[in-house]
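Exam revision sheet. Question 4 asks you to relate a sequence to its structure. Input first:
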Amino acid sequence: MPMRKWLARSQPLAGAPGVRGIDVVAAEWRQCALDLAAGGTRLQALWTECTHGAAARALYANHEFLLLVTLPLAGAEYPGVADVFPAAARMQRAAADLTGLRVSDADTRPWLRHAAWPADYRPLAANAQPAHGNEPRTDDYAFVRVTGDGVHEIPVGPVHAGIIEPGHFRFSVVGEKVLRLEERLGYVHKGIEQLFARTRLIDGHRLAARVSGDSAVAYGWAYCQALEALAACPVPPRAQWLRALALEAERIANHLGDLGALANDAGFAFGLAQFSRLKEVWLRATQAALGSRYLNDFVVPGGVGADAEPQRLAELAAGARTIEAETRVLREILDEHAGVRDRFVGTGIVTAELATELGLVGLAARASGHDHDLRTDLPCEPYNRLSVQKCVRQEGDVAARVAVRFDEVLESIRLVAAIAADVPPGAVRADGTMPPAGATAVGAIEGWRGPVIVALTAGEDGGIRRCHPHDPSWQNWPALEHAIIGNIVPDFPLINKSFNLSYSGHDL
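Answer key, structure tokens:
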């Protein structure tokens, strides 16, 4: 198989289990992508960098490995791969905005660059200077137009009624039927990748945990996984188990909140009230056991920031079992509610074939028949000891994404009980050594949305040369544009919530 020749050339890379690295030349960049796609491998992340030489980097993934492909660049252009992996299109556009390195034959519209950016400003370009005193320009973003009899546009956003980050959605409709949806994000660019370059390695986990606030454990763990590999830091077993406990607690909280919101979007306010109550109960139990509701900074380099008393762990497991019982009852109520079923079933379908073409990941992929899950495919400690059961559905509609959430809540509750009962004794934090400048590692953790990636390169004197965090929403936002086609406009909030993707994860 052609894919195997690239693996044969690759070398083990520090970081997550199964991660490998390979350098290629320009003529090999696209061929590597084509061969990996033919072998069933998906694109996990793509970015560019200008520190200590220009390069394009792509991370590919399947059940067996993570492969970091690096293309050193002599100029400002590199071959695009969006025709092979459609998810690459927005990643390439974002990379061009940040570094000025771009593909020569693809969509050149800005992704992160909005009217407030100076025309020639590239924040991650070599020797980039801060932008000051810029006057906002007219924002003339070129949305794709759909024409025809009876076709009209409905612009929604970028400011929304709910307390969410901004995003612009441009619907082309006939009556209420959606013909096309185009998204535009990046309105609140936070400069996180630039901030990483001003942060010390030992402090970077705090910034990583704030990339997307609902995934603090996943991002913090992915960053620390990369750093610990670079620093030859052996994480104590007790800390590893407590990290897994925190990650599953994070998964439960987010799924409970989403289930309530989905019920509400289907006109079933009782569901919102009950799941909101359960989420609050769970957050309080998490705080009592692990010291924080949302677990910011719980994962720290070398381990965890706080230990958990045995009694508190037992109470958390008991609380989880109570929530399990109530969740099962609420699931029966939603399954038997005709109005809810009518809104969920057959709405916002992403077929298994489309999921493959778009490179869908995480929860959304598992609802469309794909069983990717880093906790089982490439498990780190202690997941290699926990026998995680994958939660997969085939239908690819809102109902399937709801069902996966229910299944994962119940599975995570089982894992919480198992972890709480078997946490080994010992220390919760260890020290490592200073990694050499230029060393690179990749962290990969299955967050509640999907795989969270952090690619980390050490700098001089304990600094960070480059850190690229990647949210699974990058792959899944384009799927929302397809899922809404043929549905009616009032179903968009429901379909959108069934994915519940991160705006913040795009605005780096």
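Marking note for examiners. The two ends are 37 Å apart (CA to CA).
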